[in-house]
Amino acid sequence: MAAPLRAPAAAQPAIAVESLDAWFGTHHAVRGVNVDFAQREVTAIIGPSGCGKSTLLRCLNRMHETVPTARVSGRVLLQGTDIYAPGISPVALRRHVGMVFQRPSPFPTMSIRDNVAAGLRVRDGAKPSRAETDRIVERALRRSALWDEVKDRLKASAIGLSGGQQQRLCIARALATDPAVLLLDEPTASLDPISTQKVEELVYELRREVTLVIVTHNMQQAARVSDRTAFMLAGELVELAPTAKLFTAPGDARTEAYITGRFG
Q1: Long-range CB contacts (within 8 A, 24+) of 248-257
Q2: Which residues have a Cβ under 8 Å from the Cβ of 262 and sit 6 or more positions away?
């Protein structure tokens, strides 16, 4: 980004989305979304396939625009700074808004250590020394609850890890740049139940340090890990509420129809 992010005021949301529209060519994927994501909370986004959940998520760190024909309008304010303003570097932005995808995506030619350190190459300022890099890698692996499992094989290929470990490695890689926000796009969709539980526990713990936004098809998962849940339908944000309220007393009939299984 053009300048370092300033520390947000206590009442300021981590991300504020204002009148956001997103297209893929002529397909209008996200329609007039207004939403705030609170600091150090987990917000889940649920809704049927194709409703715009992942597109909205990708708009929060400008991953959307990596797709040919994609475009957006509106504003996304990260700690008060519009990430779509002229002069904002998308690459530098992603230091502050990390992302973890549906399938684990470690770099296959890199060691476990080098995978975690990969994001430091686009770090603001001077490249950290080897000793500093080692410290950052260890901290990120500890934050992702992976250090004890890999500390004796940091030079080994990341491909040798299990699927669940690879996903936590990807979380560690995103955490290494010390982001303000972490975006998770169906992070457990390809994992077994035990690995899913570990990732969910990690998400729950990380809320103490970072703002998290998680897209999930699994309503039970949203209920387990999130403070607030948003329901999307046909590109629109229908409702955002504290998770317990949304699942027990939704304010919109469309939300109720979805969570009770009448469609989706």
Answers
A1: 255/231
A2: none
Encoded tokens for 163: 């699927």
**Is 209 in a helix, a strand, or coil?**
coil
The H or E element containing residue 246 is helix 243-248
Tokens 């999130």 belong to 226
Q: What are the pLDDT tens digits along the chain (264 aa)? A: 544 454 445 578 999 999 999 999 999 999 999 999 999 999 999 999 999 999 999 999 999 999 999 999 999 999 999 999 999 999 889 999 999 999 999 999 999 999 999 988 755 566 789 999 999 999 999 999 999 999 999 999 999 999 999 999 999 999 999 999 999 999 999 999 999 999 999 999 999 999 999 999 999 999 999 999 999 999 999 999 999 999 999 999 999 999 998 876
Evaluate whether 76 touches 83 at the Cβ level (below 8 Å): yes
Provide the residue type at 197 as one letter: Q
> What DSSP string describes 169-229?
HHHHHHHTT--SEEEEESTTTTS-HHHHHHHHHHHHHHTTTSEEEEE-S-HHHHHHH-SEE
